[in-house]
Automatic annotation (TrEMBL):
Family membership noted in the UniProt record: Belongs to the ROK (NagC/XylR) family.
InterPro entries the UniProt entry points to: ATPase_NBD (IPR043129), ROK (IPR000600)
Protein name: Glucokinase
Lineage top rank: taxon: Bacteria
Length: 344
C-alpha cells in the first residue's frame, strides 16, 4: 500500500516495500501437519518433555510439574541456574529445536516466494527467553556451517509490542495527520491493545514509534466464546480511547488489528485462525462485529483494518533490514507465523 493508495485489509505493499508472501501453509512430507509447527514453541516443549522422560542424568529440575505448565522463567533458570544436570535437559531440547528450525528454514527458502531471502527475523514470544534465543543462535550457526547465506536475527523490538508498532508502516494517509492510533495484536494465548504514537515525522519507516499505553488479556486462561472475546476487545479499545482523551493525545479514528491467518480484501480470515478463541474464519467478519461495540474517536467511527500478525511484526523491523533486498520473518509462538518482503 503506497501512501496515496486506498487503505485495504491485508495490504500487499507499503512505501518502498512489497509483501511477497505470508501465512504460507507448507505441509510436511509425511502429511502430519505443517512444516512450521516443527519449530513452534509447542514443539520445543514436546522436545523438553521427551528429554525429561528419557534423557535425565539427575533429578528432574522441574519436579512433577507437567512440561506444558512450566513458565519460561523456570526453564531459563534450569538452563542458567548452575545445575549441570538441569541445564543438560534444556540443552537437549535446544539442540533438537535448533535442528528443526534449520529444517523449517530450508523448506521455506525452497519456495518461490522466499527465493533469495537474505535474512530472517525471529519474532513471537519464544526469542524473549534465554533458551529460545540460544536455539536461534545455534540454528544460525548450523546454517553457517552448511554454507547457507541466509542469516537469522532476533527481533529488536519487544515482541509484545512489535505487532502494534508495525502498523505505523500501514497507516492510511489521513491517520498519519494525527499523532497516534490504536492497534491490536491477537494471538493464540494473549490479546494486546495499544495506544501508539507513530512519530513518522522523526522516522519515515516507523522505527521511532512507541506504545504510550497498553492493555493485555491472557484469553487462553479464560477460554472465552468468540462473542465474549469481541466484547472484551472492544472494552479495551474504548478504554484506550478514553485514556487518549484524558492525556490530550491527538488520536486518529483508526484501529489496526494483527491476527494470525490469511486476510482477504474484505477483511475476513480465510484460513489460519485455528488458535484464536472461537471460530474467527470466514464468513465471520471481525471488523464488522467489532464496529458495533466501539465508541467514536472524536466525531468519527474508527476505521478498522486487519493484517497478518507476522507481516506487522516484520514491518516493525524494516529499518534494521535496510541492507537486504529480500528478507523474511518467522514468529515463534503457539504456532509459527511467516512472511517475506522485497524492497522496491
Amino acid at each position: 500500500m503506497s501512501r496515496t493508495a486506498r487503505p485495504t485489509h491485508g495490504a500487499e505493499a507499503t512505501a518502498g516495500l512489497r509483501v511477497d508472501s505470508y501465512n504460507l501453509a507448507l505441509m510436511r512430507a509425511d502429511g502430519e501437519g505443517f512444516v512450521g509447527d516443527l519449530a513452534s514453541q509447542t514443539a520445543f516443549r514436546e522436545l523438553l518433555d521427551e528429554a525429561r522422560k528419557h534423557q535425565r542424568t539427575g533429578k528432574d529440575p522441574f519436579g512433577k510439574t507437567p512440561t506444558f505448565e512450566l513458565g519460561k522463567r523456570e526453564i531459563d533458570m534450569a538452563l542458567v541456574g548452575g545445575d549441570a544436570d538441569a541445564a543438560h535437559l534444556v540443552h537437549i531440547a535446544v539442540e533438537g529445536h535448533a535442528q528443526r528450525l534449520v529444517e523449517v528454514t530450508r523448506c521455506f527458502l525452497a519456495q518461490p516466494e522466499w527465493n533469495d531471502v537474505e535474512a530472517i527475523v525471529l519474532g513471537g514470544g519464544f526469542p524473549k527467553s534465554h533458551f529460545g534465543a540460544l536455539s536461534i543462535r545455534r540454528a544460525d550457526r548450523l546454517l553457517r556451517n552448511a554454507r547457507l547465506k541466509v542469516r537469522l536475527c532476533i527481533l529488536d523490538e519487544d515482541p509484545d509490542e512489535a505487532a502494534l508498532l508495525g502498523w505505523s508502516s500501514l497507516l492510511p494517509e489521513d491517520a498519519r495527520r494525527h499523532a497516534a492510533f490504536l492497534a491490536v495484536d491477537i494471538g493464540g494465548t494473549n490479546l494486546r491493545c495499544g495506544l501508539v504514537e507513530h512519530r513518522l515525522g522523526k522516522a519515515a519507516e516507523g522505527h521511532k514509534a512507541r506504545v504510550l499505553e497498553h492493555m493485555q488479556w491472557r484469553h487462553a486462561d479464560d477460554a472465552p466464546a468468540r462473542g465474549e472475546a469481541i466484547a472484551r476487545l472492544a472494552g479495551m479499545l474504548n478504554g484506550l480511547n478514553a485514556q487518549a482523551r484524558t492525556l490530550g493525545v491527538d488520536l486518529a479514528p483508526f484501529i489496526g488489528i494483527a491476527v494470525p491467518g490469511k486476510i482477504e480484501p474484505d477483511g475476513k480470515i480465510s484460513q489460519g485462525a485455528q488458535n484464536l478463541p472461537g471460530d474467527w474464519e470466514m464468513p465471520f467478519d471481525l471488523s464488522a462485529a467489532l464496529a458495533s461495540h466501539l465508541d467514536r474517536i472524536g466525531r468519527r467511527m474508527p476505521q478498522v483494518l486487519l493484517h497478518n500478525d507476522a507481516v506487522v511484526q516484520g514491518l516493525s523491523q524494516r529499518h534494521a533490514m535496510r541492507k537486504h533486498k529480500r528478507w523474511g520473518i518467522f514468529t515463534i509462538g503457539t504456532g509459527l507465523g511467516n512472511a517475506s518482503y522485497s524492497r522496491v
